From TrEMBL:
This is Mannosylglycerate hydrolase MGH1-like glycoside hydrolase domain-containing protein. It comes from the Bacteria. Keywords: Glycosidase, Hydrolase. GO terms for molecular function: Glc3Man9GlcNAc2 oligosaccharide glucosidase activity. Coiled coil: none annotated. GO terms for biological process: oligosaccharide metabolic process; protein N-linked glycosylation. Belongs to the glycosyl hydrolase 63 family. The keyword Glycosyltransferase does not apply. It holds the Pfam family MGH1-like_GH. InterPro entries: 6-hairpin_glycosidase_sf, 6hp_glycosidase-like_sf, Glycoside_hydrolase_63, MGH1-like_GH. Residues 42-434 form the Mannosylglycerate hydrolase MGH1-like glycoside hydrolase domain.
């Protein structure tokens, strides 16, 4: 009997109206140097948003996609970190919180190498950037070479990865750690509930919530959680944004972050070879990271990867979509690939049964189909899963996910996230990475990507 994951379905047809709609969003969100995730709720440049946006923007303008990444990397700190927000000085301070006057990067981050002339946050987001740079290069290699694009971004990307695998290896097992729930990008995930209980929230009168002016309170983090986020960010700032040698109340190894680091490390190997550098150190690091990911975060009983709380040393039992994202990693043991695919199709995530893959286990105690990262489906995680499934030969599942993502994107006005059961819009609309990744899904030819099944072909489909 053919399983759902392997049953073929036709690829989604090209949709010119959908393409025009996605392009409209990216053009409207372009600031001249980068793309905001949304004009209202997120009026600055966000790190992993820009990486995903560049992946889609390359289908409209390779030059703009290059500039997207170059602008972000222009705000890199001397210690190698790429900050999660680069602030636009033309935007009013009260348009977003935490604003530049909260982070005080140029002053309080000076010891860690924060740039003097650019205000940023002091935390980071998942490292999708080398993957994005490589895909932007592939969109027009001649134009990339003529501008020296990869030669210019390669040192910055290498320093970024060295920061994550050096200063951020707080667990000593080779994986990068995150120090704030905002860093893995899945801000309000139930995975953070237990670690956050240790945190005394900041007083309610010490900060303001600009997000509630642009989104329904029922879809956003609670005031209690937000107070804890502010406390953690303020404490990190007051430490001078120090990593090693500092006691952190929140320190977690996240499988999604480290899976993206591995894929981007493979991409760095491709970039190194293209620019005349030695790819071997990058491939060796990717192999070490993959082994550490399996050793430290794989849970055979759950059939997926889990987060590890570095404060108590234990795996966090909550099951989020981050635990499925290692499907994008080339070279995973086949039994782990099979288990991940089975978990994705099982009752917790119901891949192929419902329109979009939820951000949290449908059967979990904290599931909420509308609240930020506690159940709604996101297009960036769907895009990563589609790519991972296809790369590992699960073409039927990948085709189905691609088709439902494209249908959902148009129907929800390129929403930030959607109800996983109905694909009804949640969060803000005209969201940057939703539009960008829609363009990428429309532009790629699944038949060509599915043509090979050798290890090299699998790796090529992933990076």
């Amino acid at each position: 009997m053919t399983s759902l994951l392997d049953s073929p379905v036709p690829a989604a047809a090209d949709d010119p109206a959908l393409r025009r709609g996605a392009a409209r969003v990216l053009y409207a969100n372009w600031t001249g140097a980068s793309t905001v995730p949304s004009r209202g709720l997120y009026p600055h440049q966000w790190s992993w948003d820009s990486a995903f946006i560049a992946i889609g923007l390359r289908h409209l303008s390779v030059r703009r996609a290059q500039r997207e990444l170059e602008t972000l990397l222009g705000a890199q700190w001397a210690d190698g970190r790429v900050p999660h927000i680069v602030f636009n000085p033309a935007v009013a301070l009260d348009a977003y919180f935490p604003s530049p006057d909260f982070w005080r990067s140029s002053r309080d981050g000076a010891a860690a190498g924060a740039p003097e002339g650019i205000e940023t946050s002091g935390i980071v987001q998942p490292p999708v950037h080398a993957l994005a740079a490589w895909l932007v290069h592939l969109a027009d290699p001649d134009a990339s070479r003529s501008r020296g694009f990869l030669s210019r971004v390669y040192p910055a990307l290498t320093a970024w990865h060295e920061y994550l695998t050096g200063a951020r290896d707080l667990g000593g097992g080779g994986l990068a750690a995150v120090l704030h729930p905002w860093e893995p990008g899945m801000d309000n995930s139930p995975c953070w509930d237990a670690p956050l209980r240790r945190i005394e929230p900041a007083p309610a009168d010490s900060y303001r919530r600009a997000d509630l002016a642009h989104g329904a309170a029922a879809e956003r983090p609670t005031d209690l959680d937000y107070g804890r986020y502010v406390r953690l960010a303020g404490d990190y700032r007051d430490s001078g944004y120090a990593d090693a040698g500092t006691r952190h109340a929140f320190a977690v190894e996240d499988p999604g972050v480290n899976a993206l680091l591995i894929v981007s490390e493979h991409a760095l190997g491709r970039i190194a070879a293209e620019t005349g550098a030695d790819p071997a150190p990058h491939e060796e690091r990717a192999a070490r990271l993959t082994a550490a990911l399996v050793e430290r975060l794989w849970s055979p009983d759950d059939g997926m990867f889990l987060c590890r709380d570095l404060v108590d040393g234990e795996l966090i039992t909550e099951r989020s979509v981050a635990g499925l994202l290692p499907l994008v990693v080339p070279g995973l043991p086949q039994e782990i690939v099979d288990a991940l695919a089975g978990t994705a199709a099982g009752p917790g995530f119901r891949l192929g049964e419902i329109p979009m893959v939820p951000s949290y286990d449908l059967t979990g105690p904290a599931f909420d189909p509308s609240r930020y990262w506690r159940g709604p489906a996101w297009f960036n995680t769907g895009w990563l899963l589609e790519r991972g499934l296809r790369g590992h030969g699960r073409t039927g599942a990948a085709d189905r996910l691609r088709a439902t993502m494209l249908t959902s994107a148009g129907a929800c006005d390129f929403a930030e996230y959607v109800d996983p059961f109905t694909a009804e819009a949640r969060g803000t609309r005209d969201f940057g990475w939703t539009a960008a990744l829609t363009l990428d899904l429309l532009a790629r030819d699944p038949a060509e990507e599915d043509a090979g099944s050798t290890p090299d072909a699998v790796a090529a489909a992933l990076v």
